[in-house]
Automatic annotation (TrEMBL):
Signal peptide extent: none
Alphabetical UniProt keywords: Oxidoreductase
Keyword Cell wall biogenesis/degradation: no
InterPro entries reported in the protein's UniProt record: Aldolase_TIM, Alpha-hydoxy_acid_DH_FMN, FMN-dep_DH, FMN_HAD, FMN_hydac_DH_AS
Protein name per Swiss-Prot or TrEMBL: Lactate 2-monooxygenase
Domain FMN hydroxy acid dehydrogenase: 14-418
Length: 418
């Protein structure tokens, strides 16, 4: 057990390099980050009301342990959207993690694999998905998709995700435009405008074609084969040496790459009609991330998707939005017990996961905490954060008296008084 390992190491004078307390973890990680990383990772939309609501929602429920239950072993394993999970926890996709450390996505994948925990690769990653997939080894991973305005790029991203072994496709719905992120705005800092967090694009052949078209546009002639080849070569070099790419943002190809990304990365006109085409474009299980309204949940399931992720993007998109946990209760009541539902936004501890499962989630996505672990101790920091959350979930189940996830029902909770 994780707890016993920490205590035994403590006898020898060794303490965890990553705090187990979530508030202390965040404080220490923020001190280790640059101002731009703190703003991007820790900031939310507007005044941050949605971020606060995400945490306050967990405070509206209390766990009721039962005594003398005789439960001595727990089974945390589950299968979600066809993927077997060690525990009902996945790492959420977070873009531009390279603000924290170089090769961040590969480091996160290394930590996730060490903890045998699935990772949802970010569409806005700092490492190409193929590199990150290699770091996962045999541990399953999913791929997050932002729906571009270029449909051929959408197909290219999906095809690459399938080819490198993704087990599911997670389409993020709530970021067709960036939210009003005041901490980033006050620094004038958008990572993607600096070429950070666009490695999925610069590693993509279709994106290289779009860059070539942009460069050739002033001449009125289509890009030549030589031009295309040169651009693809330069973009390939950028993947191996991202620092050199960033140092030359005023050069034609890097500048055109950033401008092309900013023009096409997401689709403000994304609609249900777009989503209706998805089943014919991939064989992977499909989950829609960003659902908060019961009617949207019903419509998503009517489209035949394999699951939904109730999420407000960690409070980063709409200020004063409904807390994800509150939305989960309404969504599960509307769609019944059978459809697959995951929860994202506000998860910090194993006890949080327990509450979310009791209210109807099949699994949870862990976002900011794993980045805090990355900031403090790299890949091993990611592993430690995961192990801490899973260990607390296991202990909570044991102390409450539930032997498996199916036994975590609403009966183990009571609402707090207003």
């Amino acid at each position: 057990m994780r707890q016993n390992a920490i205590y035994r190491a403590g006898v020898l004078g060794r303490r965890p390099s990553v705090p187990t307390d979530p508030e202390r973890l965040e404080r220490r990680a923020r001190r280790a980050m640059s101002a731009r990383a703190r703003a991007y990772v820790g900031g939310g939309a507007g005044r941050g009301e949605t971020m606060r609501s995400n945490r306050e929602a967990f405070g509206r429920w209390r766990i009721v342990p039962r005594m003398l239950h005789g439960v001595t072993a727990r089974d945390l394993s589950t299968t979600v959207a066809g993927t077997h999970l060690r525990a009902p926890l996945l790492l959420a996709p977070v873009g531009a993690a390279g603000l924290i450390r170089p090769n961040s996505d590969v480091a996160i994948a290394t930590g996730a694999a060490a903890a045998e925990t699935a990772y949802v690769f970010s569409n806005q990653g700092g490492d190409p998905m193929e590199h990150t997939a290699r770091a996962m080894g045999d541990t399953p991973f999913w791929y997050q998709l932002y729906w571009s305005t270029d449909e051929d790029l959408v197909d290219s991203m999906i095809g690459r995700a399938e080819a490198c072994g993704a087990r599911a496709l997670v389409v993020t719905l709530d970021t067709t435009m960036l939210g009003w992120r005041t901490q980033d705005l006050d620094l004038g800092s958008l990572p993607f405008a600096r070429g950070e967090g666009i490695a999925q694009y610069t590693s993509d052949r279709r994106f290289a074609d779009l860059v070539a078209e942009r460069i050739a546009a002033p001449t009125g002639r289509p890009p030549t084969t030589v031009t295309l080849g040169a651009i693809r070569t330069l973009l390939a070099m950028s993947r191996a040496h991202p620092g050199r790419f960033l140092d030359n943002l005023r050069s034609p190809v890097p500048r055109a790459s950033v401008e092309t990304f900013l023009d096409i990365y997401s689709n403000p006109g994304l609609s249900w009609d777009h989503l209706a085409t998805l089943r014919g474009r991939t064989s992977l299980p499909i989950l829609l991330k960003g659902i908060l309204h019961p009617d949207d949940a019903r419509r998503a399931l009517d489209l035949g998707v394999d699951g939904i992720v109730v999420s407000n993007h960690g409070g980063r998109q709409v200020d004063n939005a409904i807390a994800s946990l509150d939305a989960l209760v309404a969504v599960r009541a509307a769609i019944g017990p059978e459809p697959t539902v995951l929860l994202d936004s506000g998860i910090r501890t194993g006890a949080d996961v327990f509450v979310a499962l009791a209210l109807g989630a099949d699994a949870c996505l862990l976002g900011r905490p794993h980045l805090y672990g990355l900031a403090l101790a790299g890949a091993d920091g990611v592993r430690q954060v995961i192990e801490n959350v899973i260990a607390e979930l296991d202990l909570t189940m044991g102390l409450v008296g539930v032997p498996d996830l199916a036994s975590i029902t609403p009966d183990v909770l009571v609402p707090t008084r207003p």
